[in-house]
Amino acid sequence: MCAIINIPFIALLLQGIPEQIAVVTLAFVIARIPLKWEKIIMSGIILAFVSYAVRIFTISFGLHTILLIVLLFIALTWLGKGDFSLSLIASLLSFLALVIVEFVCLSLLMPVFGVTPEKLFPNLVIRIVITEPQVFLIFICAFLLNKFMKTRWEV
After folding, report:
1. Sign of dihedral through CA atoms 124, 122, 66, 85?
2. Which stretches of the chain drop beneath a pLDDT of 50?
């Protein structure tokens, strides 16, 4: 099914950009690329704007995710100078982590706020409040994994 997904610009700024920066951070850690924040932030902003632009057009659901995985892979190999196969794995795992964390957060928080999917998407404030915890969880996963990998490989 093709549909235009209307995303307000404020949702891009408060939800999309932080979420993509978190995903890129996790991908850098998985790919064992040093955390260079200017590259991570730039990549996250680009991914968020690409996602925003692609969703404006009538496309099949999920196509933007495939495009973002490819762009993240390019960022990891080109900007981050990451290993080809490790960058591919990191791109896929980072978006898989996003899907899992998003599912868990929405499953837990929607009942807490008494929100149904029909009420969630039109209500911008609730949508941002309910989806922000997933951004924090992805960042926490990235930093914990980074710490674990550093201690594991430095020994």
Report:
1. positive
2. 1
